[in-house]
Design goal:
Strand order of the largest sheet: 2-1-4-3-5
Radius of gyration: 14 Å
Distance between the termini: 24 Å
Largest sheet: 5 strands, parallel
Helix content: 40-55%
Order of helices and strands: EHEHEHEHEH
Number of helices: 5
Length: 145
């Protein structure tokens, strides 16, 4: 299964660049994860650039209004997707305007990383760390403790 993470703008903050680099490197040992930078713009414009949902694809929206899951629950979802032979999981981290309602409504999962509103660069680092953690859980490795 391939992970595509769409996010607005390249990380400008040093800690975010370092975190993205570190967790991207760690993830390579477990799965394919492609980071796709979207140019800053209005939320509707960004949604249009992402295109229509494809067959065999899960569309996951990261949004503060989303469902809260534990790492173990997310790992269970990923395991089910693997067994269903899902080809790709496209994850969307919005910019300052968030996501348009239409994108949230067509998503397979709207997931909240926190009840707090997170700056998009920080959300990207948190999401990459959680993807890494999920994959270590699936492999039975000790990182998730």
């Amino acid at each position: 299964m391939k992970w595509r993470i769409y996010h607005v703008g390249k990380p400008a903050l040093a800690f975010a660049r370092d975190g993205v680099a570190d967790y991207s490197k760690r993830l390579r040992h477990y799965t394919s994860a492609e980071l796709i930078v979207l140019r800053t713009g209005a939320a509707d414009e960004i949604a249009r650039r992402c295109g229509p949902k494809q067959a065999g694809q899960i569309r996951l929206i990261l949004d503060e209004r989303g469902e809260s899951l534990t790492t173990a629950a997310m790992a269970s979802k990923v395991e089910v997707w693997q067994m269903q032979a899902i080809k790709s999981v496209d994850c969307f981290i919005g910019g300052a305007d968030g996501h348009p309602k239409s994108l949230r409504e067509e998503a397979d999962l709207v997931l909240g990383l926190s009840a707090f509103t997170l700056q998009h660069e920080l959300a990207l680092v948190v999401w990459l760390e959680q993807l890494y953690r999920v994959h270590t859980v699936l492999r039975g490795e000790p990182y998730h403790r």
